[in-house]
Design goal:
With 986 residues, the chain is of the alpha/beta class. The protein has 5 domains: 246 residues, no CATH class; 217 residues, P-loop containing nucleotide triphosphate hydrolases (Rossmann fold, 3-Layer(aba) Sandwich); 212 residues, Rossmann fold (3-Layer(aba) Sandwich), CATH 3.40.50.300; 99 residues, no CATH class; 86 residues. 43% of the residues lie in helices and 18% in strands. The protein is built from 38 helices and 33 strands. The protein has a 7-stranded mixed β-sheet, with helices on both faces. A 7-stranded parallel β-sheet has the order 14-15-13-16-17-12-20, sandwiched between helices. Keywords: Endonuclease, Hydrolase, Nuclease. It comes from Persicitalea jodogahamensis. One of its GO terms (molecular function) is type I site-specific deoxyribonuclease activity.
Length: 986
Amino acid sequence: MTEKRFEDHIENYLTTTGAGGLKYASVHHTLYDRDLGLIPSEFIAFIQDTQPNQWEKWQVQFGEQSEEKLVKRLSSEIQKHGVIHVLRNQLRDRGVYLDPVYFEPKTGLNPEHQEKYLLNRLSVVRQVHYSKNNENSIDLMLFINGIPIVSIELKNQLSGQNLTHAIKQYQFDRNPHNEPLLQFKRLLVHFVVDNDTVGMSTRLNGADTKFLPYNKGIVNPIVPDDYKVSYLWKEVLTPNSVLDIIENFVLETTESEKEWSSIQNRVIEKKKDLLIFPRYHQLDVIRKLQNQIRLEGTGHNYLIQHTTGSGKSYSIGWLAHTLTSLYRNSTDTTRLFDTIIVVTDRKVLDKQLQKTLTDLEQTSGVVKTIDKNSAQLKASLGVGKDIIVTTIQKFGVIAKTMSKLSGRTFAVIIDEVHSSQSGESSKNLKKSLSVNEYGDEEPEDYQDVLEREIGSRGKQKHISFFGFTGTPKNKTLEIFGRKNESGQFESFHTYSMKQSIAEGYTLDTLEHFTQFKRWFKLRTDDPNEEELELPEGKVKRELVSYVDSHEETIRQKVSIILNQFVSHTSKQINGRARAMVVVRSRKHCVLFQMEMVKQMNELQLPYSCLVAFSGSIQHNGKEHTEHSLNTENGLQNAVSIPDGLKDPMYRILIVSSKFQTGFDEPMIHSMFVDKKLGGVQCVQTLSRLNRTMKGKTDTFVLDFVNEPEEIIDAFQPFYESTILTGETDSYKLYELETEIRGFNLFTKYEVEEFCKLFYSERESDAKLLHFLDGAVENWSRIESEEQKEHFRSLINSYCRLYNYITQVINFQDAELEKLFIYLKYLKKKLPHRSSTPIDLSDSIDLDSLRIQKIGELKLTLEDIKGELDPMSDSGSTGNMIEEPLELLSTIINKLNETFGSGLTEEHRIHLNNVYKRMSEDETLQKVMKGDNSETNKRKYWDEMMSKLFLEYVNDNFDFFRTVESPERKPIISDVMYNHYRRQKGE
């Protein structure tokens, strides 16, 4: 039951279990030299065994002092440059070159190298007395060729101590001051270990030492007949693994961070040295990918679902460099991939990703950054650069010119795959890398080109894709995911949002959620004026938009935002907190910014706001841009918005879509949402808050628009791993084709001739247009506008679905391909929809408005796998439904019934309880799932709701009277019923 028994167990495993011919040997701590920080005898023996000729030269130079000189030089180099630099480079002096370690050869074609690799001396030493100042000792240390690389402090929980005690030992009994062995970069990593949990640190800093979780999951799984943490010595610290980590993973780098300098009165850049040791999930995903690629070969896709906080840039960097030297087996002379292409969806290359790839570069010239034009990319692809870093946009430009790449193999690593791999960008990428099987001299006919077009969309045997994202969409899972035995698609590897939050790498953005609602009533200005009959849905949207753009609405919302910011947010993060306001449009950016500046001035606040949106907006006869509004508000011309937000003068940023994703500012603590959010966009937007920094312990969301249930529905699929429940039905294409051809607007012959011309060399497009113009003329003769729009909807659906399906299925149907090409250009020739905007500003006015706090909530997610349904196409079948026309006053009354209901917070709580009881009722669930008509389902729903409402008649008559009123009850029933059906996916 003692710590010693724990040490015995680990030492016994390491010294008796070999891997690939290597295993640890036990060395007594007395052989450790405290002055040098080495085991001199081990290093000397290694040099003598592996490099006898160089050792003789060294002896000639230094004579009797050879051993002393060598270990002193080694110790000095480690002290100056750090252990990782020394292990990856040779010791040099007086023309003698000595290798301090031998890494595993990538192939077995060099037996001498393999022999030297097996002569590495790995040692485990217990109770290492490392200090010249005291007799403190470290429980376990690992050495390679006498050079210390890992320290481990163990705690046996059966003796009453745990991980916390081990951390405190490093913090308070392992002061690195005047202790050479404990200096930064002297060891690769320090581990703290108890029976259940592991932590790691690469920098000891007294009481400020931080240990990061190093577990398999949030909680390590039970291991039969062994410790839960046995993976540490069975997987991570085995001889082969340690040497691989030293050679390919551990990274010395610098982290740049911008912060405001009150002394210089500007934003300055501060740099901090880092030593990166791979976290467990990072090591795990790279090694699992290596094994799977060796098993499968090239031409497969891999989805890595790693959320924010996973260290994705490092994982991508390690994968890219790993793939440059990956062979299928030890006898191969040709590596699996000729070129590795790292693609980001941002127009400006990700600087962090670029830096990581370059930092990992151990041979100059391996990484080529494409930061100029597509010609630069074409040249790099042509000469076969090892690693190319570029943006998705550049592939579109060269898709037609890259016809032949000599049958090379490619690994394409995509950062944030869900946005990069949509539609034509993905197709262009594949076309750029496609092999021309026919050669330059042999002419290609129309059918040859067509077959290659089809092939360029589906999986390619010579291209492997590796997609990284934390929020995969259904399309992402089907293209990049793996089909399991149940026919569902899942990620190859996952590091979940839940684990990132639990381990403290990100914050829980749903923990503090406050909901506000606005109620309003409208009135028509002139009741005697003859009213227009207008489309109901469109007018409702216009009326709600009118209310939400009304100066009184914005005034009240800005007042609520500033009240919350001044009283709460501004005091967070030691008084440095910032906020983001997310509004529904660029016009609202302007409206909110003007009102916010006005109210901030009235409150005499010592800070103001910034605004971010693209392009320009006309308002009150003046053109506004983000630049004009920000400079008018005092931001200097040369200062960017991200830098401006670090200035204490600016504490709030107003956005509509710009900066809503991909903007990493840890000081953003609060978000005020006045925009409908859903799905991935919702997750990415609220995740602007989740970055950690010193002093930041929580986040805050205030939402004017979205329901808490909608936010939960958006986050739930990505909380743990995400699966796709099935695959897209390719037969839908044939159904769409049948319906499109049923309009008889063009013939099969016209499609055939169009495609022949399309793929031929031609001087002009005049003949192409001939085959489209006839179809356009026939379309214009359709009498019904609804049928015209239905046809347009059908061809849009076909093109969208075909583009998608041919990425996930090797779909060999030339007729559908021809139709796709034809329809793709026909839809461009069809006249644009005529739409007259409805201006209601002179017809209505805002009669009353109330924006009320509904409540403060902690939104919680379930510990279940998230499920997404396969892609379908809503516009594929069925007839267009004509939008009903109603008088303006009727529409306004309907809106007033809905948004002017006057329900109190207490009423809302009771309604939630009623809904919960109904949704959990087993009999109701059977009725809803059963083979009952829609009428009967709705009847049962209404009867049960009335029965539950009746239970309140004695205890809360006010609630009963309110919800039973004829004007409210149908609306309440509709809202609840439709929400239930959406939740159940019906």
